[in-house]
Amino acid sequence: MATTPLERLTSDIQKILAEYADEVVDNVDSITRQMGQKGAKALRASSKASFGGTGKYASGWSYQTEKTRFGNVTTIYNKTPGLPHLLENGHAKRGGGRVSGRTHIAPVEAELTQAFETEVRLKL
To answer: What SS3 string covers the chain?
Structure first.
């Protein structure tokens, strides 16, 4: 069994904790990218099922991962800005009245949040 002098104990513990922190950051960054890819794919499928049509809206879902000082941040977005909000929440019609929204983003968000938490717990 290896023994560590008392003077080096603090530095050894700090080194072990730093290695663990780096491993955790790498795992969370990897999971973040995976969830972005999975989310964009799920939104393409749910949009196609909800709205059909030519598939232009459904094929517009994409994701982007940016490195920040806190780790990676993944943003899932549609290439037609503003349209997802109008379709999800509804909007006013030109001649009066209102178009009701079709919920297709919120279920995917809830599923991804749950999957992200589960994956992080499994990796840690």
So the answer is: CCCCCHHHHHHHHHHHHHHHHHHHHHHHHHHHHHHHHHHHHHHHHHHHHHHCCCCCCHHHEEEEEEEECCEEEEEEEECCCCHHHHHHHCEECCCCCEECCCCCCHHHHHHHHHHHHHHHHHHC
